[in-house]
């Protein structure tokens, strides 16, 4: 089935969840523009999630998604909200959605895990996932180990559910490339950091649009590798070998970036930042990305 039909959206353009950033303002703007806005629940409580859902539903009748980042300590507190008041789509990341996947699907919610490799893609399909996001290491935020270019066709070959490509896509040409690799849609984070409606300090947006092709760097190790814009903080993180110092520098650093602290913030962003040159309304970003969607998408399913 086409992704647009599966998710009830006009364009197969998904705004990837961004921790503490993709709050209702951005979600509403992207969904109203014909893409799929995805709400972050990082730092949310059951009450704040209920309020965010109310805000989104009051502002748009369009489809939207909610991200459950499964390393969050309070998933058990947030799940009942999504069970009592089912949402169109749940994107899961950084963990295994098996304990609640069947139940959400039974409520009519599409469940789409973000995956970093073929093995996990197959596992998620076996669990009944509606689609998957294959995310390459070009992306901003927490990253896996494979590139989008190599990962997407291998995942497409391994599963029979729609594959959404993510990581390094922020232009119409990138969208075209993702479809050429067999993807049924794209998930985009970094390009939306520069949307007018994105609730981050102007310093964050300026750093994104001023970044060049080698403007990002990866800090951390193992499952905690994070890609962000180079600044004084990333230099310090790369210089330290002491885990306690690393932890101390990192704690609260995304929030500091959101508030515009250019030296002490963690400005998570992906390699495509070098191709993002202006702050624009979310609608203009969705419209430009949609130019890369083939006019006739072969129905693979
Ligand atoms: C600032 C930032 C925060 C992110 N936070 C999350 C998150 O909380 N959960 C998640 O699943 N993905 C997160 N991501 C990944 C995005 O949802 C998306 O998959 C990724 O940005 C796509 O790659 P791109 O940055 O090259 O567009 C984040 C990305 C960025 C840039």
UniProtKB/TrEMBL annotation:
Gene Ontology molecular function terms on file: nitronate monooxygenase activity
Presence of keyword Lipid biosynthesis: no
Pfam families: NMO
Flavoprotein among keywords: yes
Keywords: Flavoprotein, FMN, Oxidoreductase
Domain of life: Bacteria
Protein task: Nitronate monooxygenase that uses molecular oxygen to catalyze the oxidative denitrification of alkyl nitronates. Acts on propionate 3-nitronate (P3N), the presumed physiological substrate. Probably functions in the detoxification of P3N, a metabolic poison produced by plants and fungi as a defense mechanism.
Name of the molecule in the record: Probable nitronate monooxygenase
